[in-house]
Each structure stands twice: as structure tokens, then as C-alpha cells.
Amino acid sequence: MKIYLETYGCQMNVGDSGKILHLFRQQGYEPVAAARDADLVVINTCSVREKPELKLFSALGRYIPLKRRNPDLVIAVGGCVAQQWGERLQEKSPGLDIVFGTHQLDRLPEMVTAVRRRRIPLSRTEFGPVPGGLEVMARPESGTVSAMVTIMQGCDNFCSYCIVPYVRGREYSRPSRAIIEEIEMLAAAGVREVMLLGQNVNSYGCKTPGEIGFAELLRQVAGIDGIARIRFTTSHPKDLTDELIAVFGELEKLCPALHLPLQAGSDRVLERMGRGYSASAYLEKVEKLRRVVPDIALTTDIIVGFPGESEADFAATLKMLEQVRYDQIFSFKYSPRPGTRAAAFADMVSEEEKKERLARCQAFQDEISFAILAEQVGRVSEVMVTGPSKRGGEWSGRTPENRIVNFPVAAGEIGPGELLRVKITEAMKHSLRGEVAP
Ligand code: SAH
Ligand code: SF4
Ligand code: F3S
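A: This is the predicted complex of the input protein with iron/sulfur cluster.
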């Protein structure tokens, strides 16, 4: 049997897709690169904005007609859009066999078996206290250097624009013992870098009596032999504690890089977003971080055109970009999401205005991003080799700050996972070039 898996959305979804693939591999399925070669098509969806949501419908428009040629083909949709729509998806798209919600990932294999037997559409989108599938531990493919480990699921923050708490359910932290065991397994399989994932990792363990907190979890992960680098995402600024900031100075394996979503620079907008911090409180945390790790690379998420955002509010966002000097930003036009508070706000910003602000925001950041890369020229950095570079002929790796570096090496001399000292020789638009230092 062959499975074709398509994934949209955040790294948590990518992690979930790894688990789905693992479950079907255990049943003898092989992954294929095209839906037309598959016996099972699984689409893992995202509903954070309208654009990724629409991707599902165009994908279904391509894959459901494949059933005419292959009547045994089973099509399943999971993830956040599945959770949001439930069986209404099947009313809208006849021929869609399975809808499975974000807490039902581990039930997918038995749903597929049931559909093959009875050929009736199935839908499961209940939320449980513990999301099903979180303890599925996918073994890394051989040669994997960096692996993602989901440590928590769900979100209790209910920022006014965001659909995630509705589609991922309440915040749940995996037992720390299970996380440590999974990372030990990964390390034994040759993984050298782990990325700990959750919608809001800073509140890891806070709501579970007897569980350790995130700073302590990081210390325990750092104690695992074989793991050379630790990263995590996403951090909510309001929950970035002094203890966590201190851990950056304490643990050598913890990379000097942090994704700290700002969303907006205006206090009025932040308030209406329900983010729980002001621009000055955010800046204060950045200053504290830089006192501990002067070279820490920060990245962020920005929403432009939130309801009621004036030109002055938007200017406050640009000012924050200038003050913080992020390595990189991920910026989005505000997209109203059904059922969220902000979708009912009256003062929507026009599409043209949003488009124009997004372009200005990105152009503004591009200069900062390039200036930061240019400042790296001449430095020597420890680079973890990730593989051959995209353009070929060279190798590619990441600095501790997560910047991409391409460099030439005589063939066969190195392999993925190795740590090398590389002298940075040139800044490109989105990456660095270098040469292996003697
Ligand atoms: N848990 C993470 C982010 C999850 S969603 C956090 O709290 O930071 C990823 C990003 O999508 C968000 O940071 C936000 O910038 C963006 N986003 C979420 N909802 C959005 C919406 N309705 N419109 C536009 N962007 C949105
Ligand atoms: Fe969404 Fe806010 Fe939760 Fe992030 S913290 S997932 S933006 S509700
Ligand atoms: Fe998208 Fe769901 Fe992640 S909405 S961003 S896939 S949590």
C-alpha cells in the first residue's frame, strides 16, 4: 500500500505528519510523492489564516477526481481545518472519506481500515483531555540530524485574532519523562539537534501538578548525551520568565536564538489583541535577554492591518522592528477567522491598506535582515552541517543563531551532523557564505 501525505501550517503540523507517516509505515505503507500513485491520500491542514484554509479546497478539487480511475483510493483530511469543519467538510466535498480532528491522529489507521471495509464516510473530531497521538514517537530516518519533538499541544491564551485555541483545544503538557525518553531514543538514532515544539512552550508544565517547568525541562534535555543543540518554539512574551532568560546563559547546548512573536508595536493594538504585554514590557525582556546572551538572534511574527490599526499604530510596529533588530520576521495580513473575537470588530482595515502595509513592513525588515547578515562577515562560527547546499557543489549548515551558511568542501570529507568552524566570507540576501576555518 502507498500513502501520499500533504502538510500545511506550522511546525506542529509537520511534526504530526511525521507521526501519521510512522503509524502507516508500521502497517506496511510506503510514502509516495504523487497522489495519483497512492492508495491513501492524507491532507494535514491549517486554518490560521484564510489562505492555508483555501489550499485544502483546491487540493480536494485535484484529488477527489482521482477516485474515478482508482475507486479504492481513500482520502482523509486532518488537522485544524478538519477540526473546525468536522463532517460539514464531507457535505461540501462528496468523496472525502475521512475527517479526523487534531486529537484523533492515532485513530486514523483504524478509520482507514473501517472505510475500506464499509465504504461510508467517517468523521471524528471529539476533544479528549489528552490529545490522541501525542505519544506516537516516530523513529527518525537514517541520516536525520535535527528532529522536532512536540512537548505540548493546544493553547489557553485566546488572542482575539487567533483560531488555534479552538482547533487545538486546551493546553496540555506531555509528561517530561516521555519527552526525555523520546529525545534519548532520537540521540541514540544519531540525531544531534532537537527543536521542542508547542504553541506556548514557556508555560510548559505550569498547569500539571507535580510536573517540572520549562526551564528545568531544558536542563534535563541538555543532560542527554549526543544532543549538541537545543532549540524551541514558540514562546509567548508574557510568559518569558527571568528563570528562562537565565537558562540561556546557563546551558551551552541551548542555541542563542529565540522566536518571540510581537504581533504589533502599538499598545492599543496589543491590548485589543489580548496579548498581555505592552511594547515597553516586550523591549525590557529583549534587553534582559541581550544582557545574558549579547548575540542572541531574535525572530518574530507580525500581523499588519489588525482591525482599527491606524497609520500611527503601524508606524509603532516599524519602530519596534528598528529597535529590536530581528534577524527575520514572519509577517501576515490580518485574516478574520470565524468564531474569534476580532472577526466581530467593526473597524476592519481595507485589503489594499493591508497589502500596502505588509509590503512596507517586509521592505523595512529586509534591510535590517541584510545588515545583520553583513555584520557576520569576518566572524568564525560553529556550523552544524545539514547537508549538500540547495544550489549544489557546496555544503550547507546552520550557525548556533540558526543562520544558513553555504561553504565549499572537498567531496566526501564531511557529513550531516558534523560541527565545523566556518569563517564567514560573504552575506547573501537570505544566507551567508563561508569557508572552513583551519
Ligand atoms: N502560538 C504562537 C503562534 C501561532 S500562529 C504564538 O502565540 O506566537 C502563528 C502566527 O500566525 C501568529 O504568531 C500570528 O502572527 C499569525 N496569525 C494568527 N492568527 C492570525 C490571523 N487571524 N490573521 C493573520 N495572522 C494570524
Ligand atoms: Fe494563537 Fe495567541 Fe495561542 Fe499563539 S498564544 S496560538 S497567537 S491564541
Ligand atoms: Fe495552522 Fe493549526 Fe498550526 S491552525 S498554524 S496548523 S496549530
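The chain has 13 helices and 19 strands. Residues 10 and 282 are 24 Å apart (CA to CA).
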